[in-house]
Amino acid sequence: xxxxxxxxxxxxxxxxxxxxxxxxxxxxxxxxxxxxxxxxxxxxxxxxxxxxxxxxxxxxxxxxxxxxxxxxxxxxxxxxxxxxxxxxxxxxxxxxxxxxxxxxxxxxxxxxxxxxxxxxxxxxxxxxxxxxxxxxxxxxxxxxxxxxxxxxxxxxxxxxxxxxxxxxxxxxxxxxxxxxxxxxxxxxxxxxxxxxxxxxxxxxxxxxxxxxxxxxxxxxxxxxxxxxxxxxxxxxxxxxxxxxxxxxxxxxxxxxxxxxxxxxxxxxxxxxxxxxxxxxxxxxxxxxxxxxxxxxxxxxxxxxxxxxxxxxxxxxxxxxxxxxxxxxxxxxxxxxxxxxxxxxxxxxxxxxxxxxxxxxxxxxxxxxxxxxxxxxxxxxxxxxxxxxxxxxxxxxxxxxxxxxxxxxxxxxxxxxxxxxxxxxxxxxxxxxx
Length: 433
Hints:
Rossmann fold, alpha/beta, 2 domains, 14 helices, L-fucose Isomerase, Chain A, domain 3, 19 strands, 6-stranded antiparallel β-barrel
């Protein structure tokens, strides 16, 4: 199924003097815009309407048959129709984009209304049509998140609708006994295949022996099997709690590593908000992200993203791989985990969502080091930030907790626009309040 977008082109009545000039050919412009959108976003479906009054706009929204479009683009091809404000207030989600000089005064008015009334609308005023394309593509990300399924493996976890609202993602749960059944049924030959693959691809193996890595490979097949049977797009496991209770025969770290490398999504600690963030990055960029417990170092002006799970294909499953080391899990010295030596000199984007509080956090950094220290989790990626103290003081741990989710690339604007379309309160953690 393709993401459906309704494109609205406001137009003045014939003979009315106005910008960009009298009798501007809106129909011709609409054909040009639709052709460009279809070329840039072939995975999406576009329909259009030329509207000349508020009444026509209201009538379209009232009479539009179900299912409604996944998003609306109001492309400002006329001034002072106020059609854009009808969609800003009554439709969702909405992007309003200026056809420069045709709707420039109107989009300034619309942007003021959006800010004053706190409407979930993204406004674009750019001579680069690619900026409009990027904003419209967020409708596709939102649809995929709405249709996604997250599988939680936990014995005490209780499903909470508020944990995914307003994204609409479905969460399902199985207990540790179910996962153990998948573990015991894993194919022996395929299990050994992944064991041998990881051992041969690793830069080195420090603590775990071959049998431990074999158990990790069996756990990977268990995770994959559980996801396949429930048609899940992501899985997150209460790994620490279940392992310490003796209910997991292996840590899932290498399994998550493989899932993320393959273009799927595996996340630690039954953390649904972080899983949502990884899915968001996956649908937005085609790249895996990774969860971490960040550490602030004001002396070096860095934030260090530390965890025992990380991908080694940070640019996506078809991108280059970076070296990794197979280690034990850091806190207890048991099992097998990953120390990924990630690429340096790249911009990364880090986010966290709290759906219950309708809050969203974002910051950027530039990767500068892979920290090798026995303290804390195995993978420790250091990123330089504008002001580490500002980041520390704006961390809002009471809202977002310790975990953050990091992806290679500068997706700050796209993430901020997604937060806007979802109606989330935005925290720019690296900016002065």
